[in-house]
Design goal:
ABC transporter involved in vitamin B12 uptake, BtuC; two-stranded antiparallel ribbon; mainly alpha
Length: about 300
């Protein structure tokens, strides 16, 4: 029996929309990681921890301010807090390590992930936290005769907005264009008298800002707990690998594959839904081992 006859086309469409909305969060997080990989050549394992900090910071803003205003401010203040943390880490630590081997950078960011995880435990404790969406984003809207969560619709809108903003930064701003040049030949960019270190810092902070934004956006959809960084960083790395290392639009394609296949898995075989995205990853890597789009590495 096929899926359409079992669930109906409208139910199938709703499930796909749910998968697309989750893909938007994955894209925002993975795009930040891909930017860092593409410009700095740093496999930042701590990216997931910054996402977790963004989620917990959003909880704090919502708790202190409260109401709808607290939620909207959390989408600004939580990513900015993550950007501040990443700026301090980049200036104090990362800027001295860019010329090191990738394995050393990987081990360093893994250690940083453990440190940031303990910091979250120290400041926010080990209890579950939750964030409530504002009234305007609660409930559902009717699409194709089926109820669809309003918050998921919000995610479907904000994902392309963030993607367009990132495209503008990379292609239309001076720093973005220099970042693209530095990704190809950082020594030549430095020889032209440009301070490559600050270009790298800007790219790193923006990438981490996106991680924090992803954490703030996901906060109303799940319970916040220690360890939430582990699952997301694995997914984010797989997404940037199948999309093409350092390719931001590849991150979008990989996120869509990951989100939609998981959503279809929930519909077809709920008990094995988590396997579907990884099967898709294996299939992609068998036929396109360097990713679906051009890798910058």
């Amino acid at each position: 029996m096929d899926t359409a006859s079992t669930y109906g086309l409208s139910e199938l469409a709703m499930q796909l929309l749910v998968g697309l909305s989750r893909s938007m969060i994955l894209f925002i997080i993975s795009a930040g990681l891909s930017l860092i990989l593409g410009v700095l050549r740093v496999p930042n394992v701590a990216h997931g921890s910054l996402y977790m900090i963004g989620a917990f910071a959003a909880f704090t803003v919502n708790t202190v301010i409260g109401g709808s205003l607290g939620f909207w401010l959390s989408l600004i203040l939580a990513p900015l807090f993550v950007a501040l943390v990443s700026f301090a880490a980049e200036r104090a630590l990362f800027c001295h390590l860019y010329e090191r081997e990738h394995l050393m950078l990987l081990l360093f960011t893994f250690a940083l992930m453990l440190i940031l995880g303990d910091m979250v435990k120290l400041f926010w404790g080990v209890e579950y936290k939750s964030v409530t969406a504002p009234d305007i984003l609660k409930g559902s809207v009717i699409i194709l005769g089926q109820p669809f969560p309003t918050y998921n619709l919000f995610l479907l809108v904000i994902g392309p907005v963030v993607g367009f903003g990132l495209w503008l930064f990379v292609n239309k701003t001076r720093v973005g264009k220099i970042s693209k040049a530095a990704a190809v030949d950082r020594m030549m960019v430095g020889a032209l008298g440009i301070n490559v270190s600050w270009v790298f810092c800007t790219a790193f902070v923006i990438g981490c800002f996106l991680a924090g934004l992803g954490g703030a956006l996901v906060a109303p959809t799940m319970g916040l707990t220690l360890g939430m960084d582990h699952a997301i960083i694995m997914e984010a790395f797989l997404i940037v690998v199948i999309g093409g290392l350092g390719n931001i639009w590849g991150a979008l394609v990989g996120s869509l594959i990951f989100g939609v296949t998981h959503s279809l898995g929930v519909m077809l075989l709920p008990q094995f839904a988590i396997i579907f995205p990884y099967v898709a990853v294996v299939i992609v890597l068998i036929f396109w081992p360097r990713g679906l789009l051009k890798s910058v590495w």
